Amino acid sequence: MEYPPLPPDRWPDAPGRYPDPAVRAHDPRFDAVRLHNAAVERIATGCRWAEGPVWFGDHRCLVWSDIPNNRMLRWDEATGAVAEFRRPSNHANGNTRDRQGRLVTCEHLTRRVTRTEHDGSISVLVDRFDGKPLNAPNDVVVASDGSVWFTDPGYGIMSDYEGRRAAFELPTAVYRLDPDGGSAKPVILDLDRPNGLCFAPDESRLYVVDSGSPGGIHVYEVADGRVGAGRPFTDMRPGGSDGIRCDTDGYLWAAAAGGGDGFDGVHIFTPDGTLIGQIVLPEACANLCFGGTAGNRLFMAASRSIYALYLKTKGA
């Protein structure tokens, strides 16, 4: 018996059919982390360039940066309402939380990494190295020992759109800031534009996106706060990546942009670099994070909008 589809105008306002065709498996291993009855949802829009999403489980909200608009926004999980979190934000880009739950932010305009204390005051963690101003810190993660790792590719000083144009006074680098409040030191200097970064679940590996030339994602061995040998992980062509995160299984979830329709969104890799799945979005994706009540919801900052998808895995 044949089962012909209904006429396309039968349900003019119908939702998409499960499984969501925007969630694509390239390898059977992807079935272990995706839900077949969950779809990609757009939960917010109206940004100029959305970046740096970070989840606040204690407040059930997502905070992210809208860099050109010099503001940070907040989405409330309970109501779905979007409101301003901070304006001006000093053209903030990447965000994370430290082990005490404090917000750590990379600011383009002030060329610094800051920490928002529990009382709302802002502390400067680092804004200089070797007596010279940082370029424009971009993305940041905090290790289990409390050390702060951040990238400094300088995009915030390359135009007046996401910061203020200025001359580079330092090489582009990945820095590590000691947990005891010591000085920041460059730990990776061999990348053109080090951008997104994240640790593997056991922190034995540090993944770093190079959004320059030739680009791609690189992985470095890490032990006792020291970075060892690095190697290419994947080149991401024909597009590139920006923000990255690992799940509890060690799979790498990488924002994807610049490859056009069918490429842009999120690409999912095993620890050996095999592409096992995709989340295809209608906008270029810049960054992402895990969150939600159970930690199993992926939030994606994609150009002018924020998208979300429930999964069968959690953030590392």
Describe the model.
0% of the residues lie in helices and 44% in strands. The protein has no helices and 27 strands. The strands form seven sheets. It has a five-stranded antiparallel beta sheet with strand order 1-24-23-22-21, with no helix packed on it. Strands 2-27-26-25 form a four-stranded antiparallel beta sheet, with no helix packed on it. It has a four-stranded antiparallel beta sheet with strand order 3-4-5-6, with no helix packed on it. It is globular and about 75 Å long.
Which terms summarize this structure?
316 residues, mainly beta, 5-stranded antiparallel beta sheet
* Major sheet characteristics: 5 strands, antiparallel
Query: Uncertain spans, ≥5 residues at pLDDT below 50?
Result: none
Distance between the termini: 47 Å
Count of separate DSSP helical elements: 0
SSE class: mainly beta
Total strands:
27
**Helix coverage percent:** under 10%
> What is the H/E order?
EEEEEEEEEEEEEEEEEEEEEEEEEEE
- Principal-axis shape: globular
Mean of all residue-level pLDDT scores: 96
Strand order of the largest sheet: 1-24-23-22-21
Percentage of β-strand residues: 35-45%
Radius of gyration, in Å, reads 19 Å
